[in-house]
Amino acid sequence: MAKTIFEEMGGTYVRQGDYFIPCLALPAEKENQPIGIWGQRHKRYLKQNHRVLYMNLLTSGKLNSYLADIDEEAEKMFSRLVKQMADREETTEQVKAENQIEWVRRMNNIRSRATEIINTELIFV
User: Fold this and answer.
1) d(CA 21, CA 92)
2) Between the CA atoms of 36, 41, 43 and 45, what dihedral angle is there, to the nearest 10 degrees?
3) pLDDT (tens place) for every residue of the chain, 125 residues total
4) 99: helix, strand or coil
5) Ramachandran sector of residue 33 (left: φ over 0; alpha: ψ -120 to 50; beta: rest)
6) pTM for the complete prediction?
């Protein structure tokens, strides 16, 4: 019997009952990096809105490293934005010492705006 293209490329089959099933396995990921909240949000977005890209990354074994890179970039951007906004709006330790409630209000506002910027520019793209 002639070899199939799959067999010519090094693939093998396993017989189960009357059927031959190809032996397929996903490539192993190089490293299992932890994925934070930003990476998980982007993963959920890809699953729901960009299924082809998600499946291509998943089957090529690059999904975890891709999400870890997105997460790292978003975390750096978040820290930078919060610091810049706090400096610009003069939300300092002095404000914290004088009026803690006002400081918390300002910081929550800054964090919310930074989150929206990152979602718009990195996560939901």
Assistant:
1) 65
2) -170
3) 678 777 778 888 888 988 888 887 766 665 678 899 999 999 999 999 999 999 999 988 899 999 999 999 999 999 999 999 999 999 999 999 999 999 999 999 999 999 999 999 999 98
4) coil
5) beta
6) 0.75
